[in-house]
Design brief:
CATH class of chain A: Mainly Alpha
CATH class of one domain in chain B: Alpha Beta
Distance between the termini of chain B: 87 Å
Mean pLDDT of chain B: 84
CATH superfamily of chain A: Formate dehydrogenase/DMSO reductase domain
Largest interface: A-B, 69 and 80 residues
Order of helices and strands of chain A: HHHHHHHHHHHHHHHHH
Number of strands of chain A: 0
Largest sheet of chain A: none
Helix content of chain A: 55-70%
CATH architecture of one domain in chain B: 3-Layer(aba) Sandwich
Number of helices of chain B: 36
Structural class of chain A: mainly alpha
Number of strands of chain B: 42
Number of domains of chain A: 1
Number of helices of chain A: 17
Largest sheet of chain B: 7 strands, mixed
Oligomer: heterodimer
CATH topology of one domain in chain B: Rossmann fold
Strand content of chain B: 15-25%
Chain lengths: 492, 1086
């Protein structure tokens, strides 16, 4: 037995961890090994189907069925079954479209922009957020199609060569929408799938049944985890992240152009593109919070999706919410500053004038939709301000509740933009009032059915956290970490 | 193989040649050979039976065509090619025929378009000396009435179909058994037909003891009756409103509901027209209880409850008439109106100052004394033969319906012949007409519908024959227009449901020959226009008999009639309670147009209500009675008003309240013609029946009504315009005459702001090239001429196949009218000024709708039209959102193909005619899901030159593109090699749009703006021209000429400016909207 080399006490390089007060909270709280992580995440899929899942799934499928039944009703009967009417020709469908698209922003933002910015905390939440994005875009995508009068000619919006030589009209923002949304959806799906491959391989390797082995194996594309695989994977992932990043900004900018290209007071606003993107990120993070805060508890993933994650997301929400609030203020300022009486009328008398304060102050009758406007302001400007407080950010109950208000607020923002601008514009003889019908409401709720059906299936069949990536950010993955390597003190 | 030549067709007559024995023998081999050799259907030709059939049809067609009988309908089911085309017929090219639509005292001379044998569009006859081609909404909608699937279509005895011959035999038998006519009574409608007068005289000669009565629920004949009294000779007045400088209307809605309104509008608009600042215009004063179109167009308006109208007139008379022994009575009468002296005095002064050029008009609701008073005033003003002429007119029949009812109840009438009219619905309630009618032994009733007067299972005479009445487009006849010109009524189609005419029935009952309507009309013409066949043909061709207008009679006023009438006039009793005005509805008339969908959906010119009448109340009265509109809930264009019960002399009705600004206080306005019990599928359930309150002595005005709020606010009223105020926006621009003279270009200065740039920052290179067409179409609308009659709306609906959508849809602002009449109020709620503005696609050169359509469905043509490709439209509706004028209309449902009560029901789960809708559709996608009879008829009224839009498609005004194209094609055909294909107004080749053609006021001018000499170019050069929302730089091709009022500075309601706020006021203040404080409605608010 060889003698141990005697080390001089002085020759030892003292590796000392920074004081506890300076120590950053680990990104993943798990002190367990990588195997535990795999077990825990894959366990969501492999474990027994929880009761709440079954109940939620039954409800979601029912709602989705209602949604599709109503689409059938719509197609067979006409868009008149909605509350649309002169002069409000766009209603719930467009509101819901913009709202769902907005929600679809968080996923790609988290997965692409945060990836490029080396925000490694994203790994715990990116998979679920991306799934949310895809399903939200699916929900969104339904509406532009079904809202048109002749659904069966929807394909005319695509530049399909035909014998008539008629092309789409490329000056129309609706045309740009078609490209923006379909590109965004395609790239988001690719990006998501790309990230999934190593995890699908994990699932394949863990599979106990042949069917599982086959299907996961099919989609894992023969992943073996070899060096070459990883190398290609990382490159591809980076390229896709680079591709997705401008899309995050472009898709909602273009959706906003649907409005700002028109000449309607309240729509014709140059601030819309940045304001819509900020709003979209705001609502997207709101939705991620709404989904993940209860899920981390129900699926016992608190160690992976930590309070810190929630806090960080709250901070993004706060930042974007404040941008949105600023944009609201700016719209009012410009309406006043422009001197355009139609703009002024719109902002005051269609939106802001409430029966209690502003109306009496300016001697105007209350705006027909003042309640919608003030719901929007409360939820989008006031609510995020609570996230200044750490106590709020760390209280899961509060975060959950506030995140729902964020979503409500953002829905009302679209309502305010679409409806209040349209219902009373230039010629007073056209003025009207819009109210949804039961079909509008059920169809909107029905898209939740669609969304949650897919999301619940996702939870049961696809690892909701990127197993491979999240291991990389555990303390023990750090060679300098006591659990991870010889040296103490090094951090991720 | 040798080809055997096909057999020659043998001539029908002449020797028969045969090709071979086979042919003679008609052997199977020969037939087989024929059938093999030729395509399918060739066998038809060799079948002698069907070939003969074909030839028979053809020769019948030729025969009729040669006769000039245009009423023949070609067979619908069998299609044969025309081996030889009937003369003057080109398939697909419409033909135009002159005819006339009879009205109560007159007629509207018409030119009707016939598309392949079916009348599709009605126009006024522009050649008539007393006309300009303008019509009213009722005439425009008459073509839909022709294809009403609910029209009477059977000859029935006691409700059971008996066949035409049986009915005609019964009439003949009646004539044989009538003896001297005792026990025989005729109840007719008013008519100007000389043929009817002739038949009537003949029958009266044959049955001297027969009783004759004329009944009209709304009698517009009072002017004639009273003039005849005042001048002691049968005359009728003819108003030359264009000659008048000052007009006073005393509850006379001569623009809306009086006889010959479109003629009045034409002359009135002429008197108001302004070309330049030197022009003068007439001044209109109105005294009225309701807010009518006449009041809307008045420069000064005095709203008075009915009981004060005669006093006000009396007061005016005192100031104008020379002192006489009637003054005492007049002073008594006028005491009640003393408070309004400040208004009446300067008005009287103005009339006197303009003596000889002023005119006082009395409305049909006023008592005879008031009419006589107006006649006396006109005499004193020297109006006769200047602003009013009296034409000799035939003496009318005594309209004593009460006498007839009494005679019926007394058993003196065995046989009652009712020709037209619907007394069971609209006779005064105290007569209890259905009971009276049932007392007759035999009733013969000619009616257009199986309505209330038709056989009633619960209450009926021993025998009642119901005969279907032919529509005027199906029948021969004649009529006289307002100035007495004789106009023919020519059929354009055979009676669709086999109906017969009044003339036929009269001839049969009278046992007169000839008894066919054609012969009757022809016979009558002989006595008027001579025996010449050429004169008759010219008369039919022109649509009127030139020179047949009644000459002005030289009349001498006899004041004794007035004295007598004044003595009989009860001075208005000061009964408590509310006063009621029963008025002729602008659309339903007295109920006769109840089943006409275009009219039901046409918004009332003032209230903008559709599909309903309402209990009209002034805002103050509504507030006092606590049925104020402020308490109602509003959903867009749907209003839930208080349902109130109006009680008058123990009779009561229930109806929803409509608060009407500008109404007289303590007055209830009730429109007649609604609430029909037995009507068709369209009119069912529309409104409430105000006739139930009317009694013989309260036909138009009643006092002492009590109104009680039932507390029910569930009844829904649908209006096409829910916001009443212009919010100070310079949408309709107007000024007073002095201001206009000082600054003729005032309208252009009323911009909210100058456009920030004069042209786009990034000009579209296509913008310049796209406007290089041969013509550049444009439109100019003179708001000073437009009176708001709404004829243009129905004309457009008829021309452009615009569907009706039903009340529920109107309540959701989904009506489809391409042109609408916006009506705005300004000023105080109680006594506002109002303006109307036709609003249609403005055909912007930089159209916001075009740039946002993703599929290129709406685009610009090189002649400046914004065109809509229905087939390409997918229905994103973005174009409508981006249209600042909101003139685009969307087909939310398949309005043309599905029943209006099925709209919300999916075709997946509904049935029509007992068949699953989806299956029906799969079997034949070109067939609608309307019930078969409706479907067949609804197709007939469609204009074949305009596509019928399906659901999910946006539509809008095309400036009657089909007419432009037809004109262009015609020009090209005519030009041949000359290359002269440009349409020009000088050559009269520029088409008129439907709205323009229907407009009696000539307010709409369409034409080529690239032709400096065209009317539209000249109109656009006027300084009053302005563009709505010009700061948006949409560069509309449709411009407006600002409105000018002509108020009298001496009047108490004189204002320096018209009431709508000026732009400066609109712009002042940070978020100002000054109009909102005085906004009459609070509508639009939640």
């Amino acid at each position: 037995m060889a003698a141990q080399p005697v080390l001089d006490e002085r020759s030892l390089i003292k590796v000392q961890a920074p004081p506890a007060s300076l120590e950053r909270e680990p990104l993943v709280g798990s002190q367990h090994g990588p195997g535990w992580l795999s077990d825990r995440i894959a366990g969501v899929i492999e474990g027994e189907t929880p009761g709440w899942w079954k109940i939620s799934f039954a409800i979601s499928v029912t709602m989705m069925t209602v949604c599709f039944a109503l689409i059938l009703y719509l197609m067979s009967t006409g868009v008149g079954i909605w509350g649309l009417q002169h002069p409000v020709m766009w209603g719930y469908a467009i509101i819901n479209f913009v709202w769902w698209i907005g929600i679809g922003h968080a996923g790609t933002l988290i997965s692409a922009i945060l990836f490029l910015l080396r925000q490694r905390w994203r790994t715990s939440i990116n998979r679920a957020a991306e799934a949310m994005t895809i399903f939200a875009v699916m929900c969104a995508g339904i509406f532009p199609l079904i809202h048109i009068g002749r659904i069966w000619y929807g394909w005319w919006l695509f530049p399909v060569p035909n014998s008539n030589g008629i092309w789409p009209q490329f000056r129309s923002p609706l045309m740009w929408d078609v490209f923006a949304v379909s590109t965004y959806f395609t790239v988001s799906v690719l990006f998501w799938y790309m990230g999934l491959i190593p995890d699908l391989a994990v699932m394949r390797d863990r599979a106990k049944t042949k069917i599982r082995k086959f299907s996961y194996g099919l989609f894992a594309l023969g992943w073996t985890g070899s060096n070459r695989h990883w190398s290609n994977y990382e490159k591809a992932y980076l390229i896709l992240a680079g591709l997705s990043t401008p899309l995050v900004l472009s898709v909602h900018s273009i959706v906003s152009l649907d409005f700002s290209v028109s000449q309607l007071p309240g729509w014709h606003t140059t601030i819309f593109p940045p304001y819509f993107v900020a709003g979209a990120v705001y609502s997207g993070f709101g939705m991620v919070l709404t989904l993940l805060v209860p899920l981390r508890r129900m699926l016992k993933l608190e160690e992976i999706i930590t309070v810190r994650h929630v806090e960080l997301m709250c901070k993004v929400t706060l930042a974007t919410g404040s941008i949105v609030g600023y944009a609201y203020g700016m719209e009012f300022f410009i309406a006043w500053y422009s001197g355009n009486p139609y703009e002024r009328f719109l902002f005051l008398q269609n939106r802001a004038a409430d029966p209690f304060i502003l109306g009496p102050l300016f001697h105007v009758p209350p705006a027909p939709y003042w309640w919608a406007f003030w719901t929007m302001v409360t939820c989008n400007v006031v609510v995020p301000q609570f996230f200044w407080f750490k106590k709020v950010r760390t209280s899961m109950l509060a975060v959950f509740f506030l995140s729902i208000l964020v979503n409500v607020g953002m829905w009302f923002e679209r309502f305010v933009i679409v409806i209040t601008s349209l219902h009373r514009e230039f010629l007073p003889s056209n003025w009207g009032y819009y109210g949804p019908t039961w079909v509008d409401i059920l169809q909107f709720l029905g898209t939740f059915g669609l969304f949650f059906t897919f999301f619940l299936l996702f939870l049961r069949y696809i690892p909701l956290i990127a197993i491979a990536e999240v291991k990389g950010v555990t303390p023990q993955a750090d060679p300098h970490h006591p659990l991870g390597g010889a040296k103490v003190g090094g951090k991720h | 193989m040798k080809t055997i030549p096909p057999p020659c067709h043998e001539p029908e007559t002449g020797p028969k040649y045969w090709r071979g024995l086979d042919q003679v023998a008609e052997t199977p081999e020969f037939r087989q050979w024929v059938e093999r050799e030729f395509p399918a259907g060739a066998g038809e030709w060799t079948d002698p039976v069907s070939r003969r059939h074909f030839v028979r049809i053809m020769s019948a067609s030729f025969l009729l065509a040669g006769l000039g009988a245009t009423g023949c309908r070609r067979p619908v089911e069998k299609i044969y090619p025309f081996a030889k085309m009937p003369e003057n017929y080109v398939h697909g090219v419409p033909q135009y025929f002159a005819t006339a639509m009879p009205s109560r005292r007159g007629a509207t001379a018409l030119i009707v378009k016939s598309s392949d044998g079916r009348p599709t569009k009605i126009e006024g006859n522009p050649d008539l000396p007393d006309g300009n081609g303008g019509t009213d909404p009722l005439a425009q909608a008459a073509v839909l009435g022709l294809y009403d699937p609910d029209r009477a279509m059977r000859f029935a005895l006691n409700g059971e179909a008996r066949g035409r011959q049986a009915a005609l035999d019964a009439l003949t038998k009646l004539s044989e058994t009538a003896g001297d006519g005792s026990g025989l009574a005729f109840l007719l409608e008013q008519s100007s037909s000389p043929s009817r007068a002739r038949l009537q005289a003949a029958i009266a000669g044959k049955f001297p003891k027969a009783r004759w009565h004329v009944y009209e629920a709304v009698d517009l004949d009072l002017g004639r009756q009273t003039a005849s009294l005042a001048y002691k000779t049968p005359v009728e007045p003819y108003f030359k409103l264009d000659q008048a400088r000052v007009i006073l209307s005393v509850d006379c809605d001569f623009i809306g509901s009086e006889e010959n309104a479109h003629g009045n509008i034409r002359r009135f608009a002429q008197g108001r027209a302004l070309e330049g600042k030197e022009d003068s215009m007439s001044r209109l004063y109105a005294v009225e209880s309701l807010f009518t179109l006449t009041g809307l167009n008045a420069d000064h308006r005095l709203r008075l409850p009915p009981s004060l109208i005669v006093p006000a007139l009396a007061r005016l008379a005192l100031k104008i008439l020379a002192p006489s022994d009637m003054d005492g009575k007049l002073r008594d009468l006028s005491a009640a109106a003393q408070a309004h002296d400040s208004w009446i005095e300067p008005c009287a002064q103005d009339l006197k100052t303009n003596a000889g050029r002023s005119l006082v008009l009395a409305g049909y609701r006023l008592p005879p004394a008031a009419h006589l008073l107006a006649i006396a005033i006109n005499e004193a003003l020297g109006a006769v033969n200047h602003t009013v002429e009296y034409h000799t007119a035939p003496a009318a029949i005594d309209p004593d319906l009460a006498g007839l009812a009494a005679a019926l109840k007394g058993g003196q009438v065995q046989t009652l012949v009712i020709l037209g009219g619907n007394p069971a619905y609209n006779a005064p309630a105290d007569l209890d007409w259905p009971q009276a009618q049932a007392k007759a032994k035999t009733v013969v009733r000619l009616g257009s519908h199986e309505d209330e007067t038709a056989w009633n299972a619960a209450l009926h005479a021993d025998a009642q024959w119901d005969l279907p009445q032919a529509h005027f487009l199906e029948s021969w006849g004649d009529a006289r227009t307002a100035d007495g010109t004789l106009a023919p009524i020519q059929p354009l189609i055979d009676p669709i449901f086999g109906g017969i005419t009044e003339l036929e029935v009269l001839a049969l009952i009278g046992g007169l020959t000839p008894s066919t309507p054609y012969e009757i009309a022809r016979e009558t013409f002989r006595s008027i226009g001579g025996d010449s066949e050429n004169a008759w043909r010219k008369y039919l061709h022109d649509g009127y008999l030139a020179g047949s207008a009644a000459p002005a009679a030289s009349v001498r006023h006899d004041p004794s009639a007035l004295a007598g009438a004044l003595a009989q006039l009860k001075s208005a009793p000061s009964q408590g309670g509310l006063e009621i005005v029963f008025y002729r509805d602008a659309k339903m008339d007295d109920g006769r147009y109840n089943n006409n969908g275009w009219l039901q959906e046409l918004p009332d010119p003032i209230t903008k209500l559709t599909w309903d009448n309402a209990v009209l109340l002034s805002p103050a009265t509504a507030r006092r009675l606590n049925v104020d509109y402020r308490k109602r809930g509003a959903q867009n264009q749907k209003f839930f008003e208080h349902t109130v019960e109006v009680t008058l002399n123990n009779r009561s009705i229930k109806g929803p309240v409509w608060v009407q600004p500008g109404m007289a206080d303590d007055t209830i306005g009730l429109a007649l013609g609604y609430g029909r019990q037995r009507t068709g599928r369209v009119g069912r359930g529309a409104g409430f029946d105000a006739c139930k309150l009317r009694t013989s002595d309260n036909l138009y005005y009643a006092a002492g009504a009590v109104l009680r709020d039932t507390g029910d606010t569930s009844y829904e009223l649908a209006t096409t315009q829910s916001h009443w105020s212009m919010e100070g926006r310079p949408v309709v621009r107007e000024a007073n005459l002095e201001q206009y003279r000082k600054d003729p270009a005032f309208a252009q200065k009323m911009k909210p702001e100058k456009p920030p740039v004069e042209s786009p920052l990034y000009p579209n290179p296509l913008d310049t090239t796209k406007l290089n067409g041969l013509h550049q179409w444009g439109l100019s609308i003179d708001l000073n001429r437009c009176v708001g009659c709404s004829a243009c709306m129905v004309a457009c609906q008829s021309e452009n196949n615009i569907p009706i959508v039903g009340k529920e849809m109107v309540g959701k602002s989904r009506e489809m009218h391409w042109i609408r009449l916006d009506r705005y109020y300004a000023g105080p709620v109680e006594d506002p000024q109002a303006v109307t503005q036709p609003m249609l696609c403005q055909h912007c050169e930089a159209a916001p709708c075009e740039s946002v359509c993703p599929v290129n469905a709406t685009s610009h043509d090189d002649e400046g039209l914004n065109v809509m490709t229905y087939n390409r439209c997918v229905g994103t509706r973005y174009c409508s959102n981006n249209c600042p004028y909101k003139v685009r209309r969307f087909n939310f449902f398949d309005y043309n193909r599905r029943p209006l009560d099925h709209l919300y029901k999916s075709p997946l789960v509904t049935e029509t005619d007992g068949q699953w809708e989806l299956l029906r559709w799969l079997k034949n996608p070109d067939k609608g899901n309307l019930p078969e009879d409706q479907w067949q008829l609804s197709r007939l009224v469609k204009n074949p030159d305009v596509s019928v839009r399906m659901r999910g498609v946006m539509e809008k005004c095309s400036l009657c593109l089909q007419r432009i194209e037809q004109a262009k094609i015609a020009a090209k055909v005519k030009a041949r090699d000359s290359g002269h294909i440009r349409l020009s107004e000088k050559e009269n080749t520029v088409p008129k749009t439907a709205c323009q053609q229907a407009c009696p006021a000539e307010a709409i001018v369409f034409g080529d703006t690239s032709d400096a000499g065209s009317a539209v170019s000249k109109a656009k050069k006027q300084e009053r021209t302005y563009t709505v929302l010009e700061f948006l730089l949409t560069k509309p091709r449709c411009t407006y000429l600002a409105r000018v009022r002509n108020p009298n500075p001496l009047m108490p309601d004189y204002r320096e400016h018209p009431m709508p706020r000026t732009t400066e006021e609109f712009n002042s203040g940070p978020f100002s909207s000054p109009e909102s404080e005085t906004e009459p409605s609070g509508k639009g608010a939640l």
